[in-house]
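thought: fold this chain, then report.
action: predict
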Amino acid sequence: MVEADEIIQSCTLPRPLSYISRGHGLANMLRRVLMIWPKELAREPDPFSQELLKRVRRWEGSNIRELLHHRGKRVLSHGDGNALNWHSVGVGALWCVDFEFAGWSYPEFDAAEIVEHFSMRRNSEALRSIYRERFSRDAASIRFFEVCCELVAIRWLAVLWRHRVERSEDYNAQLRRALKIL
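observation:
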């Protein structure tokens, strides 16, 4: 999967995509996590939502906004880390489908979206190790990757928090993962 992601990223960005950030990109995700979700949490009177709000605000208070000013290499991004988009079609063959969110992104953010997508939770630690090795040549890339992983984990927690009753198993699994970060 990591190799398939690298192949996608090695493609030259076609002119229209070189100007279009991938759907649900970094800036959008930061806005949702730092501005929208805290307002939703604040409206919930239950103690647990209030505890999550405190944790998100602590995370927000870090140097996380540096993400918006990242000037790393832009690559073609598939834009959707959902495991259902990756299909094994034989030994060593993998197809990637559903490019509706494609556009430019940063390799580290793209990797974080794959690693931390809630559908990848069974493989996330192995994937994280592979990507950390991939970015190990540059301390700034490692730091950017780790911060992006935090952001994406929190984003998926926010998505699943809205469905915490009907999708309690997914929500609780993501909660355990995100609380390690928060």
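thought: worth noting. The two ends are 28 Å apart (CA to CA).
final: tokens above.
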